[in-house]
Amino acid sequence: MPYDQLDRLIRLKELIEEKLPPPQGGENSSSLLHLPIMDSKNSKSQVAAYAHIAFMQELVTFGKDMERFVLQAKHGRIKKENLTNRLVEYQEMKAKTELYWELLGMPQEEILKSLTELEEKARTLIQTATFVNQKQLKKSNVE
Question: Which of 9, 33, 45, 118 shows the greatest Cβ crowding within 10 Å of its Cβ?
Fold first, then answer.
């Protein structure tokens, strides 16, 4: 329904949800849900832009986490499990990025490049860092 017909849509919603008689012995549980048309070029580009912003914000968090991992690795206080879990998260985000690109045309190059860089850093740490196990970590926190 065109946006200039919004008042009619609101009246229809009220009619369905508030004035429609309930079934015999029951109550009116009817509702009208309004969803924007996702096939319109404008709607897709808006959703793609917001999704891109959200992905970039998540990358900032991943980047800060990686800085923390690097610092912890210098002090021998890093767990391999944390890095391998993070690699899985990077792969999941890559898959999600590609899906958003396919469905919405969301720009993906910058996101994929950043994820690849984070993966390389994580793999380098996995190969070069000295890891602690949970017992060692607890012991060093007590001392």
Answer: 118
CA angle 7, 10, 13 (to 5 degrees): 155
Cβ burial, residue 92 (10 Å; 0-12/13-18/19+): exposed
CA–CA distance, 133 with 81 (Å, rounded to integer): 9
The DSSP line for 4-47 is: GGHHHHHHHHHIIIIISPPPTTS-----------TTSHHHHHHH
3-state secondary structure of 131: strand
Cα angle value 33/38/41 (rounded, 5°): 145
SS3 58: helix
With residues binned 3-state (H G I as helix, E B as strand, rest as coil), the percentages for the chain, rounded to 5, are 75, 0, 25
Determine phi and psi for 10, rounding to 5 degrees.
-65, -40
